[in-house]
Specification:
Length: 125
């Protein structure tokens, strides 16, 4: 049966595979944007030490530290889900793709929580 493309992305119709696909794409976009910003910031180091220190000062507020914790979680999810996809392409564990996705998601969530606790300790100091 044919489903319109927008029907696949309605919350009640989303299956685990669709969620995994969507999260992998969104995390990839997020990481690409982060990498571009990172290259721009590091590229500003050629403008001199004072200019670079001023720019880095913008990233020392608590919100940026929380975003760094989120970045660690996104990297963990993207990497673990990528490994799951490689296994899928190699026809390893095909029956366990749903379980492997949730394992990747839960481990990445644990990594995020661990980094959030570390950030909280940094902010508290």
């Amino acid at each position: 049966m044919y489903k319109p493309i927008d029907a696949q992305f309605q919350a009640r119709a989303m299956r685990t595979g669709t969620v995994a696909w969507l999260l992998q794409r969104l995390s990839g976009i997020f990481l690409t944007v982060y990498l571009i910003i990172h290259i721009i910031v590091i590229g500003n180091s050629v403008r001199g030490e004072d200019a670079f220190d001023d720019l880095l000062g913008l990233f020392e507020n608590p919100l940026m530290l929380v975003l760094d914790a989120g970045l660690v979680g996104v990297v963990a999810f993207h990497a673990l889900n990528g490994i799951r996809l490689i296994l899928f392409d190699l026809a390893i564990g095909l029956r366990y793709q749903k379980v492997l996705f949730w394992i990747a998601f839960i481990v990445a969530l644990g990594v995020f929580i661990g980094s959030a606790v570390a950030v909280r300790n940094i902010i508290a100091d």
